[in-house]
Specification:
about 600 residues, alpha/beta, 5-stranded mixed β-sheet, 21 helices, about 20% strand, elongated, disordered C terminus
């Protein structure tokens, strides 16, 4: 026997010891026929095991298991079929093919590795959805198992959160009672040119890996779309953007989807799709294998933590007013006293879909009126509700208890908001901005002249075309479809259209003529009359009235010194000598 034969014999002896130590019984060794040779035939309970042993010395050569390619795998299958035909046939527990790799180093003990369940190549695929803006792209998750050193490689342009799914998926599979394949696992996300982000691919990656390992039937998961995040304990957590993902899957022709139980109501809004909501990976494996479904406890034990569940992202609302709890917390136009012209302007803007511009002094009720514009708008139709819900689901502001947005949204960003927060953007794939979150609703720009000029000019294209297109190096994304209304009251501007001397620099409008002309409905508001002034407003108003009487050329009484106002307050009882030109009621 030469050195190569002696090395192979030594490896087979080590493999036989390893199988015996694992509780197997060696039935036959080095069985030969015209088609080839089977190194070891063992019995593992009711199952029959055909074992192929590969031995290598440590060095620059490949791993021993890597020598079993497709041609060698087919030959091992034919040898196993011949052995079963010449003996008692297939046992009740079935038959499988294992691989044992032995590495003999120059010094020290040899290293043995046992690959159970068929050390041959395996392949399976499942489907998931990648979100690009508010649109989805169906992604095929392909898993390939090859003999070799146990490794997990993820390819297909994944981001950081998707690369970390390797550890989440491995821990979830093991904690769910399934065996993780100790081989070289390669998972590819196709098409590879589309950027993938988020943890919604975990469920599809886990099922594809189990299908390649033989735990699941590859045909049962080939045409199923799976969207969900896996916890380390195997629980399935909801993710953002389920509705646009299922909409994209339905448009692509898929009929079966699997999501987390918390997202089943949102996914069921798409017609023509069969939705399966699961609590854990263990339940999904039981359903796909026609096994009894285990009863999993409800997550949180009655608590509703939307941030930890993945449905809502804190701080992502950009001032969106979608109060949960029904219409009891919804502002109503009936709360407004007076202001007939402003109320009529709201009704005209709501009925015709025009943009609205409010001007007037501080405290006149511009913000209060704008907040109630969404209450005047009619309820959303089914199609409009799906569009608004899809945008809010991607942004992470969808309430878990309200999977479908049925009324017009209201968004009021702060005047320090940047152009990206208004229009949309961010690192990597652009995210919806305030104008997209106000889709089919109201975008309220309070203190509009305080906004950045670039941010206001960026609204010109949405006003003209009705949708937002954000171009980045990663691609071009459309974040808004036609059908939004917005209203914008500026800061204090006098009736003649010129800012007051003390506020000339800060109150000068920063928007262009195109933005001003984009608001066909304009309304100038004033203080509501018919009630006495408050104690805090009375001294200022009386001082302005007194200054106007002394200096008629100054409309605001700016020349009246402060000591003159203080010495003349409170005014004598009876009719005052001067009245405020902006008011029709006398100071109290």
């Amino acid at each position: 026997m030469n050195a190569r034969g002696a090395l192979g014999r030594y490896g087979e002896d080590l493999a036989a010891r390893l199988l015996t130590g694992a509780g197997m019984t060696v039935v036959e060794r080095n069985w030969r026929c015209r088609a080839g040779e089977i190194d070891i035939v063992a019995r593992d309970g009711d199952a029959l095991v055909f074992c192929e042993v590969k031995t290598r010395r440590s060095g620059g050569f490949e791993h021993p298991m890597a020598a079993v390619g497709p041609a060698k795998a087919d030959r091992l299958r034919r040898l196993a079929e011949i052995w079963l035909d010449r003996h008692e046939g297939t046992p009740p527990g079935g038959a499988r093919i294992d691989l044992v790799g032995v590495i003999v180093p120059p010094r020290g003990a040899p290293v043995t590795e046992h690959a159970r369940g068929g050390g041959l190549m395996g392949f399976a695929r499942a489907c998931s959805v990648a979100l690009v803006g508010v649109e989805g792209v169906v992604v095929e998750v392909q898993a390939d198992l090859e003999p070799g050193v146990a490794a997990f490689t993820l390819v297909g342009l994944p981001d950081k959160s998707l690369v970390e799914s390797r550890d989440r998926v491995r821990a979830a599979v093991v904690n769910s009672g399934a065996e993780w394949p100790q081989k070289k696992l390669t998972v590819g996300l196709s098409p590879a040119s589309v950027p993938k982000s988020g943890s919604g691919f975990d469920l599809a990656v886990a099922c594809a890996a189990l299908g390649a390992a033989g735990r699941l039937d590859p045909a049962a998961i080939a045409d199923v779309v799976m969207v969900g995040e896996l916890g380390l304990d195997g629980r399935v957590r909801p993710v953002r953007g389920v509705l646009p993902a299922i909409l994209a899957a339905a448009e692509a022709g898929y009929e079966h989807v699997v999501v987390a139980e918390q997202s089943a109501g949102e996914a069921a809004l798409v017609p023509g799709v069969s939705v399966l909501g699961v609590r854990s990976l263990r339940q999904l494996i039981a359903v796909l294998c026609d096994e009894p479904v285990p009863d999993e406890p409800v997550q949180g034990q009655g608590r509703l933590d939307a941030a930890s569940a993945g449905l809502m992202v804190p701080g992502a609302g950009v001032g969106v007013g979608l109060a949960a709890g029904g219409d009891a917390h919804r502002p109503d136009l009936a709360d407004v006293a007076g202001q007939p012209r402003a109320r009529q302007a709201l009704e005209v803007a709501a009925a015709s879909g025009h943009h609205l511009l409010f001007t007037g002094p501080p405290g006149a009720g511009k913000t209060m009126l704008a907040e109630r514009l969404s209450a005047v708008l009619p309820p959303l139709t089914r199609r409009e509700s799906l569009e608004v819900t899809a945008v809010h689901s991607v942004a992470g502001i969808l309430h878990p208890g309200e999977p479908l947005v049925s009324r017009a949204p209201y968004c009021a960003p702060h005047h320090s908001a940047t152009m990206q927060s208004l229009i949309g953007g961010g690192n990597g794939v652009p995210r919806p901005g305030a104008v997209s979150l106000a889709h089919r609703g109201v975008l309220f720009l309070d203190e509009a002249p305080e906004f950045s000029g670039k941010a206001l000019d960026a609204l010109r294209q949405p006003l003209e075309s009705g949708h937002v297109v954000v171009a980045r190096a990663a691609g071009v994304v459309r974040l808004l479809k036609p059908g939004s209304s917005w209203s914008s009251p500026p800061t204090r501007v006098p009736a003649d259209g010129t800012p007051s001397p003390g506020r000339a620099a800060s109150a000068r409008p920063r928007w262009s003529a195109a933005i001003r002309h984009g608001c066909p409905v304009r309304c100038s508001t004033g203080w509501t009359c018919g009630s006495r002034w408050s104690r805090s407003d009375a001294p200022i108003s009386w001082g302005r009235a007194a200054g106007a009487s002394r200096r008629p050329s100054s409309p605001h009484g700016c020349g009246t010194p402060g000591h003159g106002r203080r010495s003349g307050w409170p005014p004598p009882r009876g009719p005052p000598t001067a009245r405020c030109p902006a008011m029709s009621c006398a100071p109290g």
